[in-house]
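REVIEWER CHECKLIST
Item 1: Sequence provided? yes
Item 2: Single chain? yes
Item 3: Sequence as submitted:
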Amino acid sequence: MRSKTGIYIHIPFCVKKCNYCAFLSFEAESSPRSEYTEALCEEIRLRAVETKGRTIDTVYIGGGTPSVLDVSQMRDIIHTVRECYDIKKDTEITIEANPATLGRKDGVTLAKLQAYKYMGINRLSMGVQSMSNDRLHFLGRIHTAENVARDVKLAREKGFANINLDLIFSVPGESIEDALKDLDEIIALNPEHISCYSLQIEEDTPFADMIESGAMTEVPDEEDRETYHAICKRLKDAGYEHYEISNFAKPGYRSRHNSLYWDMSDYIAFGLGASGFVNNNRYKNVSDIEEYMKTVGSGELPVDEIHENTPFDNISEAVFTGLRRQEGISYEDAIAAYGRVCPKDEPVAGAKERFWEIFKEAKDEADEFARNGLLIIDEEGLRLTEQGIDISNAIMALFV
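Item 4: Structure as written out by the authors:
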């Protein structure tokens, strides 16, 4: 079994919903933030009863927009986590924070960032999405490009040495040159990590309605892929390692939390609609906020779904997530996931042969992808080529 465990905490509040957002979140001003914080802390205490004694390698506070919470509410959450789990000095603790939600005035922002530092938060992930004010308005963001530059500068002043900035590309009306200009302005801010995602049109969002009505047209796949490869090249030239399909980092700054997801390690999830993976069980919390608070208030865990992974579930998920990474998936790690009994550094005898016995029905198609230069299959394992990333879902589907 993996020795390290992550913690994910979901804060489902935003200043306003963005036009593309289908995440589980609500506008903060009309939401019960104080009551939710109390329920969240109680869930942490309840779940700690069955998950104590673990080495917590990462804590990730996501949303929504966690930075809309008051400092005192965030302090209560972090204090409860520390009270219930062994959080080391070198534990990676990330908070998502959209620009302009840390404070409108420099002094307010600096005070909030200072409070985060005192709490032990050491990684900041900011949803920049674009450095064009027109595109930000179109996306439904509340901040400006000037807010981004200001907040990154203030975060540096308060000692944040590990900052991720998110970029969305393939926005309707945006050219490849526009996307690269956005990227260049983000690179100029010198973040340690950059995440790049093409815009996805999700059901029940304003953008989905605009597509359906004909008011907006999606960017063609060919243009999306051309933009993606141009972004990859620009980031490589700027010294960023392309270590996962959508993620780029300076040496030593890969996201430790996301890496837990990709290598089949356990992660404990808290909060509304949060999904976790503990002791070979995948679980999902309820998505109704009133039900969540009522259930936790009665002393019960707010689990809506729970599923015990089979050995095939484990190896399938290991291959699916492993192929997202630059180094791909090794046969040894895949077979270790199949049994979830071997430490990562312990060799698995006959791993390659066992792997292809499990996936014998996929072998011919996998070999065809390899012959076409889309997948590399060697004595160690499998990994996508740069061209293979463009059809990664089709390749990954062979192993599901």
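Item 5: Key structural point noted by reviewer: The two ends are 22 Å apart (CA to CA).
Item 6: Recommendation: ____
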